[in-house]
Write the structure tokens for this entry.
Amino acid sequence: MELLEHGAPVPDPLQPYLEVDRSRPRHECWVMGHMVAGLDGTAAIAGRVGALSTPPDQSLFRRMRQIADVVLIGAETVRREGYAPIRLSEETREQRRLRGQTPTPPVAVVTRSLDLDLAASVFADAPEDARTLLITCAAADPQRLEAAHEVATVVIAGQERVDPAAALQALAERGHAVVLCEGGPRWLGELVAADRLDELCLTLSPLMGGDLLPVSVTPPGAGLSHFTLRSTMVEDGTLFLRYESLPPERRSDG
Ligand SMILES: NC(=O)c1ccc[n+]([C@@H]2O[C@H](COP(=O)([O-])OP(=O)(O)OC[C@H]3O[C@@H](n4cnc5c(N)ncnc54)[C@H](OP(=O)(O)O)[C@@H]3O)[C@@H](O)[C@H]2O)c1
């Protein structure tokens, strides 16, 4: 046991995240989750994430996107939060070019139902070079599928449901080596259950009393996944925890 004490100030809170070596993923690509929770683990308040996120979390949340090659989201989060394409400053876009990334990471939405507003900003306002992806399965409604092709790049990854490994393989084949999953809990739980979550950046906000929705909802029957704490930061009572997946061979009981 050791006490975590307040240490040296961090001049740029993004720097510790930028420095992580994500070049050797265990599977198709490196998957980082970025979530915010209350002290009771809740992932939403009245169906939205906004009231959970403190100002330092909001700032880091936006900036974390510059690390990603693609931002992956479950459809319910898109329906509730009204997603828009990722916007980065010209300076950030240039830094990405220098790192060999595309200037803007596209958004990729996972859905079986395709029950989405196809006129919404996340599709209509996506730039040419970062067209929104819709990741769905072969069993999706053919008419909705046809309409989806008009506004997005459609990826079929699975028969009756989206298979996380197939979805990530399709993203990797498009050159997306670092995938940032911004939730929601059900889609994140699918990634966890498929052993595809390499890194979790978890913000703990100093409040309790939100919805009965934990940060990750793994499907029934999924086993436990283990993680190791890599870094911590704190600002105004908000904790920023960075975990990485701990494969069985590296667990003390494994
Ligand atoms: N605390 C945070 O950091 C955070 C982050 C994001 C969201 N949230 C909150 O979380 C809530 C929404 O999260 P949620 O867990 O209910 O939903 P979600 O994970 O955002 O989306 C679930 C939907 O994704 C699609 N999906 C998931 N797995 C799939 C699979 N294997 N195959 C095909 N489609 C699949 C389905 O879409 P279809 O129904 O279209 O088939 C499913 O209904 C909102 O309240 C939001 O505010 C919190």
Notes: Strands lie at 30-37, 70-74, 107-110, 133-136, 153-156, 178-181, 199-204, 227-235, 238-245. Residues 24-250 form a domain with the Dihydrofolate Reductase, subunit A fold (CATH 3.40.430.10). The radius of gyration is 18 Å. DSSP finds eight helices and nine strands in the chain.
